[in-house]
Automatic annotation (TrEMBL):
This is Capsular polysaccharide export protein. It comes from Palleronia salina. It holds the Pfam family Capsule_synth. SUPFAM superfamilies: UDP-Glycosyltransferase/glycogen phosphorylase. GO terms for biological process: polysaccharide biosynthetic process; polysaccharide transport. CDD domains: beta_Kdo_transferase_KpsC_1, beta_Kdo_transferase_KpsC_2. InterPro entries: Capsule_polysaccharide_synth.
Length: 671
């Protein structure tokens, strides 16, 4: 991470209560500043919060002591909710020339946009990827927006409101009167057009008044105060009007040339229609150059999971995970088919914004969901066949699960929530199938992210459960070594995804018949090894049975994998090991495996392995950080697994796990 735009001294003196915020102090500390109070001396600096009403204290002290003044503000991508809700920022802007929204004097940002080259190919490619990522993931300053909310029919003129008294208006050549003038211009310049006035999030949440109200509505004008995605809203607009709102910046990134009535940081660079242009700004910028300066080079970005300064891409990953969780969970869940031991971990993942409600009887899920407005979810294997077509989300463990077994009551770091089917059931489409099919259109940056993930997983030897010994016996070098992974006898993926071969013994026999000279290594499923599930077999057709062995270590030593539907097959693909499928796992039928089972005709796409990995491990699951207790990107989950940090079992779960060995045939009691 490059240093911030201004680092005038180690000690930073502040006289504003806003600097008591723990996150603000932490970001400044990571940037090399030690916040304190008192009288500054040589080599020190004074910090003030933008142009806040209390900024005069620091301004006076800096002038009196002859030390630099640093103005601090929230970055342009702040958090899930506004700061007034208590949400901590994910980035800060440090400026010792001015402040980005004050057009009366050049800021560090304005100077950068006016004079920096901003022509580096790598930098501009990053900027274009940032624009695409913002639009694709619907990320904005406050990311608690829902892309699925209804919008007005396309073809409207968008007028953007702001909160009264906002400093960007006062210091950005704006005024309250300009808002009425802006609305009048929008009506005059677009005669007969529908006008949509977008209310500011803080106004919609009751924190501060805006400039428009019910009195501004008419037959052609509506107020929109729901948390719609600005990117979706901008897509349907034919024109955009703003004073100094950051949504004008987003309008530029969405392809508009917004009509601007103040002098915001993004105005005057040839990308806006300026009613009152700032004469200093003569340079013409591209959208990528504007983003390179404003979002990549200017801010200090913070990684809340690793507690470090970071690049914007890491911040986007964190925000996307947080926003996805809010969008999926904000209405609340009513959950069925959830055993008692699972409810605590599920509540931590899905109940952060509204506590989950558990319904013991899955048959009552739909009725209770409709009666409460909550979404319905059910553990995939517990959904009654009678509800297969109902609007119920299926839940399962993700494929980077934990250090330990689910049957041993170890909570997962990743879960999947599928509104269409579930990944292991090939008899019907699933969300994962759609993601894999669409993965052929991934952007280069998305492909590169998946490539880095594969490299990390293989280098660190990470798999679904991450257990077992990495010490292996010597395997013959003069024979073709095939790994045959065993599965749990009653596994749903076998029941739904196999045909002629649906038992471990039959799998071994078939593999031996097709490979009479090969050296077969049979690896029992960890749940079966632990005595927690059924599926043990004599394994007479195997040359070697390896129990208690780490899957990643074993995959490095074999030449091929033959399987029914085991996830070990997917882990083998990650490591370049050829896989033959006798069943229909989620990774079969896409041209990456030798398929001897029946493959759904709908699997016609031919993604690369890297593209599939993006769908399977990045796009499909949700990850939960056991350290911060918040949603996180896959890379953080990988960090936690590599470091041995996972969700702890409760004391009750540890006691239950010890009792399970004698009850393997009664696994339905805890699963």
């Amino acid at each position: 991470m490059a240093p911030g735009p201004s680092e005038p001294g180690k000690r930073l003196f502040a006289y504003n209560g806003g600097f008591l915020n723990a996150r603000v102090r932490r970001i400044l500390a990571l940037a090399g500043h030690r916040l304190t109070t008192g009288r500054p001396g040589d080599g020190d600096a004074v910090a003030v919060w933008g142009r806040s009403p209390t900024a005069h204290r620091g301004e006076t002290m800096a002038a009196r002591c002859g030390v630099p003044l640093v103005r601090v503000e929230d970055a342009f991508l702040r958090s899930l909710h506004p700061g007034r809700t208590g949400a901590p920022p994910l980035g800060l802007l440090l400026d010792r020339s001015g402040v980005h929204f004050d057009s009366s004097h050049p800021s560090d940002l304005e100077t950068m946009l006016a004079s920096a080259a901003l022509d580096d190919t790598v930098l501009l490619d990053r900027a274009r990827d940032v624009i695409d990522r913002l639009r694709r993931d619907h990320l904005t300053k406050y990311c608690a927006v829902d892309p699925d909310l209804p919008l007005p029919d396309p073809g409207y003129v968008l007028v953007v409101d702001q909160t009264r008294g906002d400093a960007s208006i006062t210091h950005g050549a704006g005024s309250e009167e300009l808002f009425a003038e802006m609305l009048a211009f929008a009506r005059i310049e677009n005669l007969g057009a529908r006008i949509v006035i977008k209310t500011h999030p803080e106004t919609a949440q009751g924190f501060r008044d805006g400039h428009f109200s019910e009195k501004d509505k008419d037959a052609k004008t509506i107020l929109l105060d729901t948390p719609v995605s600005p990117w979706s809203l901008l897509e349907g607009a034919v024109a955009v009007y703003a004073v100094t709102s950051q949504m004008g910046f987003e309008a530029i990134l969405a392809g508009h040339r917004p009509r601007i009535f103040g002098q915001p940081f993004y105005g005057g660079w040839g990308l806006t229609q300026d009613e009152n242009p700032q004469p200093r700004r003569e340079r013409k910028l591209t959208r990528a150059q504007l983003v390179a300066g404003a979002l990549i080079e200017y801010p200090l970005w913070y990684d809340p999971h690793r507690d470090r300064l970071c690049e914007i891409e890491d911040t986007l990953d964190a925000l996307a995970a947080e926003a996805r969780a809010w969008r999926e969970d904000r209405h609340g869940w009513i959950a069925g088919g959830m055993r008692l031991w699972k409810r605590g971990p599920l509540q931590k993942v899905f109940g952060r914004h509204r506590a989950m409600v558990f319904e013991p009887d899955p048959d009552r899920l739909v009725a209770r969901s409709e009666g409460t407005g909550r979404r319905a979810m059910c553990w995939a294997g517990k959904l009654p066949p009678s509800l297969a077509a109902a609007a119920i989300h299926r839940v399962e463990d993700g494929l980077l699960r934990s250090r330990g077994l689910g049957a041993d009551l170890v909570p997962p770091l990743s879960l999947v929530v599928d509104p269409e089917g579930i990944y292991y059931d090939p008899t019907r489409p699933s969300r994962l199938e759609h993601l894999i099919a669409r993965s052929v259109d991934l952007r280069p940056s998305e492909v590169e992210r998946a490539r880095r993930l594969i490299a990390r997983l293989t280098a660190d030897g990470l798999t679904k459960y991450n257990i077992g010994s990495t010490t292996l016996p010597d395997l013959p070098r003069d024979r073709h070594v095939i790994l045959v992974p065993g599965q749990v006898a009653d596994d749903a993926s076998i029941r739904l995804g196999t045909d002629a071969v649906s038992e471990n013994a039959a799998l071994l026999a078939w593999t031996r018949a097709e490979n009479p000279d090969a050296f077969l290594v049979y690896k029992p499923h960890p749940d079966v090894e632990a005595g927690l599930r059924e599926g043990a077999i004599p394994a007479d057709d195997a040359d070697l049975v390896l129990a208690g062995t780490d899957a990643a270590a074993l995959l490095r030593a074999v030449d091929a994998v033959w399987t029914m539907t085991s996830t070990v097959g997917f882990e083998a693909l990650l490591r370049g090991v050829p896989v033959t499928c006798l069943g229909t796992p989620f990774y079969a039928g896409w041209g990456l495996t030798a398929d001897l089972g029946r493959v759904p005709a709908r699997r016609v796409a031919r993604p690369s392995l890297v593209q599939m990995v993006h769908a399977v491990l990045i796009g499909y699951p949700r990850y939960h950080d056991p350290v911060t207790g918040t949603p996180c990107p896959v890379e953080v989950a990988v960090d936690r697994l590599a470091a041995g940090k996972a969700l702890p079992r409760s004391p009750l779960n540890r006691m239950l796990a010890k009792a399970q060995g004698a009850l393997a045939s009664q696994a339905h009691l805890w699963r």
